[in-house]
Amino acid sequence: MSETGLITLPSAHDVPTTLQRLLAVLAAKGITVFAQIDHAAGAANVGMALRPTTVVIFGNPNAGTPLMQVVQTAGIDLPLKILLWQDAQGATQVSYNDPAWIAARHGPAAGTVPAVAALSGALDGLARHAGGA
User: Which residues span the domain enclosing 78?
Assistant: First the structure.
């Protein structure tokens, strides 16, 4: 489990390409995309500059519901999300909240839910696919 709860992996692609790869793998796996938030566009709308920064919010009730059945407050951290962003050096990064950290945040009972390990593996796989060569 990440100490800060945040896992960041490098992408081999720019943010738009990484976003398209992420959306494609989510669609292929039948995972619902609830929203895409383009923070850079929002910043531009108020006359501010921000490097490419996009959040994709997605989920599957089969994956998240077991955790919420044990501890409903986990619903504040679900559905899951991945942040795609360009760092100061121009490299694209893929970040997400560690599901084990999310579970720990909501108490010991949440950590016993087998779905947490599955969520961790799924998020890692999605992030690596989006950023992979």
Answer: 6-131
